[in-house]
Amino acid sequence: MSDPVSISALKTYTIQNEAGASADILNYGGIITALRVPDRAGVLGDVVLGFAKPEEYLAEPYKKNSCPYLGSILGRIAGRVTGGKLRLPNGRTYELAITDGPNHLHGGVCALDKRLWEVKHTAPDSITLFYHSPDGEEGYPGALDITLSYTLRHDNALVVETTAINRSDFATPLSLSQHSYFNLAGEGSGDVLDHEVQILADHIIPPLDDTLTLSGALTSVAGRADDLRKARRLGDVVSGLFLEHGAHYFLRAKALTPDWPELVARAYEPKSGRQLEVLTNDCGLQFYTGSGLNLSCVGKSGLPYGPHAGLCFECEGYPDGAHRPELGDILVHPGTPQRRSTIYAFSVR
User: Fold this and answer.
1) How far apart are CA 200 and CA 222, in angstroms?
2) What are the tens digits of pLDDT across the range 46-87?
3) CATH number of residue 50's parent domain
4) Of the residues 36, 154, 313, 340, which has the fewest C-beta atoms closer than 10 A?
5) What pLDDT score does 323 carry?
6) Known catalytic residues?
7) Structural domain count of the chain
8) CB 310 within 8 A of CB 182
């Protein structure tokens, strides 16, 4: 565990594009605390869940995951590592902290979402942050230099880019993800069950049990509530999803070129007209319906967040991908930077 972060160390940076859309970024956890984009009438609205004050991210409800990972960067490995056992191709197994049932979740007790990041560069429409993760941090082997950038393009697309350089002499896993909860009707407007959701994937890797341990088995979405290849109203399918939670969608075994991410998901909210398109070069997509929100977090609007108050499109590799590369390679090799790119593109219709 690192030394406690002081309130005085927290700083929020605002980036804005020429059209007036803007995002607030916190130097703690790389958190997106607000994201303001227009509706079909041109009225700006904040479409991500979060707190009104930076210090609320240091409070116990957030740190103990009663308000799970609002807007933060997850890692070193996003998702659940089965039994906390990190197996590397060299045959070595590392024991990670058990933080969620029988599994290791989202990088550990004091993972990247609960670290101060150094701000390296700012511009009106972008910000770049840096974090050095030393060998052994949260039990992970090898040292990594991680750069995270957010850019708000003129077309209201928020570009999230990460670059990791391995400072060790052996391959080590890294699978980061952005964990914003989106509500296209606006933060605090209620649940997202009227959102229409589309995910362009043929397979999921379903949970093995109620603790959401991943099975490692590719399963076709055909005939399942998880089949979102055609847009469906979330409220019409959520009861058929496992624990109403969502699923890890398999996209590809190898990441694409960072400059050419592919469209993998859409969400549309009919009252506001806002549409979100998700593009990524990553190997998988964890779709999460916000089922774990339990009214214990009071958001920026002054209203508590209940189940399905926001939905997440977490672009990431397969959490056990260090020894299951056929399900999504997550290794960072010495001399070869890992580059991932995800775009959250907003429009109206």
Assistant:
1) 12
2) 999 999 999 999 986 565 555 689 999 999 999 999 999 999
3) 2.70.98.10
4) 154
5) 85
6) 179, 314
7) 1
8) yes
Cα(228)–Cα(17) distance, rounded to whole angstroms?
32
Burial zone of 307 (CB within 10 Å; 0-12 exposed, 13-18 middle, 19+ buried): middle
Asked if the structure places residue 2 within a domain, the reply is no
Q: Which amino acid is present at 114?
A: K
Structural contact between residues 279 and 160, judged by C-beta atoms closer than 8 angstroms: no
> Does residue 249 belong to any structural domain of this protein?
yes
Evaluate the CA torsion angle 262, 265, 270, 271 in order and state its sign: negative
Question: Would the annotation count 308 as a binding residue?
Answer: no
Pairwise CA distance, residues 207 & 322, whole Å: 18
Alpha helix positions (H), 179-286: 234-237
How many Cα neighbours within 13 Å face the side chain of 173?
Answer: 35
Measured distance CA(159)–CA(278) in Å, rounded: 10
Burial class (CB in 10 A: 0-12, 13-18, 19+), 192: buried
**195 has binding-site annotation:** no
Confirm or deny that 181 is annotated as ligand binding. yes
The domain in which residue 76 lies consists of: 7-348
Tell me the per-residue pLDDT of 174-221, one tens digit each, with 9 for 90 and over.
Answer: 999 999 999 999 999 999 999 999 999 999 999 989 988 889 999 999
φ/ψ of residue 58, rounded to 5: -95, -5
Is the peptide bond preceding residue 76 cis, with omega within 30 degrees of 0?
A: yes
Question: What one-character-per-residue DSSP string does 281-348 give?
Answer: SSSEEEEE--TT--S--B-TTS-B--TTS-BEEEEE--TTTTT-GGG---EEBTTB-EEEEEEEEEEE
Residue in 187, 271, 265, 272 with CA at minimum distance from that of residue 232: 265
Token pair for residue 65?
């995951």
93-95 vs 85-87, strand pairing mode:
antiparallel
